[in-house]
Fold:
Amino acid sequence: MAKGTVKIVVERCKACGFCVEFCPTKVLALSPAFNSKGYHPPHMVNPEKCSGCDLCGMYCPDFAIFGYKVGEKPAQKEAVHES
Amino acid sequence: MSEVDFECAECTNPVEPFLRSERMPHIWCPGCGIGTTVNCFTRALIDSKANLEKLVVVSGIGCTGRVAGYLKLDSFHTTHGRAIPFATGLKLANPKLTVVVYAGDGDLSAIGGNHLIHAARRNIDLKVICVNNLIYGMTGGQTAPTTPEHATTSTNPYGTFEPGFNLPHLVDAAGAVYVARWTTFHVRQVARSMQEAFKKKGFSFIEIISPCPTLYQRRNKMGDGLDAMKYYKQASKVKNGAPTGEVGLTKTGEIAVGKFVDRDRPDYRELMVHRFHESLGDEYVETGELVCS
Ligand code: SF4
Ligand code: SF4
Ligand code: SF4
Structure:
């Protein structure tokens, strides 16, 4: 079973291909489908190989994709309040 | 394994809470590297558990200048070239702030070139993130001080003939305490360098070579953003500690990356406070924070 998976905000994608190219296990490919701006967003072609490493999320210049390990929440911004 | 939550409704992109979502999608072109540097920056903030109440991002003008407007942090978008002077004032008035200057090569090294040199010389405690796309992006692809020789630009249609700045060398010579260069291909290394810079006291400078497919790559027949990223991957060579005089960039040659400088020397405020105590004795009262009332 896959250790991780991704979430994609299709409408934000500009089809640069960074996530596809630099995914270490080649999980992604640009899909033939279009978003409303006419770009081809990525989809998972080898979902079982996803480790949830979030390299796709680090690369995506449009904040359209991120990866996470199944059963683990990605580290998030903590609200810091001065006492 | 039915208990495994594949969907994870509450899992969100780590960058999301840092964005002014209402301003998305941003204006950066497809394959532009600036957004990638923003990912690195937000991951570095998360991992270093930075106190976001005490952090300010200051930008100048240009494509990279938009960063200050897109980040949901205390931020200020200054006039062209003036990110460093504004940030200097902030830091001196409120020494507890972590002040990040997030700007492009044109803003930092041309219009704001003098400020860059003198902030490094004075060792003002600023974290300068310089996204270097080797050209003026927003204004139409003119030659910048960083454009490598032979590159074609809108103002040098027969190829640039003036020598470009080697920014790590410039800020090293002026006295920066931390100098690193990476490309947008090196996402983890960029995030790590940012974390190191957050910890450093004094003038820190991180140069990130980044694609501008619309103006630099296209005019030079160097493909799109992805082609630039592949070139960075293939042409980069990690040279930690390399003498900065040897890390100048050429149009298609090797890109020396790594941490070039990491040293310590007293910063501007430290020297100032020391001198005032020395000269004025008890008459001198240190101001910790200026508050508007
Ligand atoms: S999380 Fe990692 S393995 Fe999964 S698609 Fe993204 S880059 Fe590939
Ligand atoms: S990196 Fe982002 S913008 Fe580029 S193709 Fe992947 S999802 Fe789309
Ligand atoms: S003009 Fe260049 S630097 Fe500016 S957003 Fe487009 S690709 Fe990025």
In short: The mean pLDDT of chain B is 95. DSSP finds ten helices and eight strands in chain B. The beta strands of chain B are 55-59, 74-77, 98-104, 127-132, 178-183, 204-209, 236-238, 255-262. Residues B 28-29, 32, 34, 63, 133, 137-138, 212-215 surround iron/sulfur cluster (ligand 3) (CB under 6 Å).
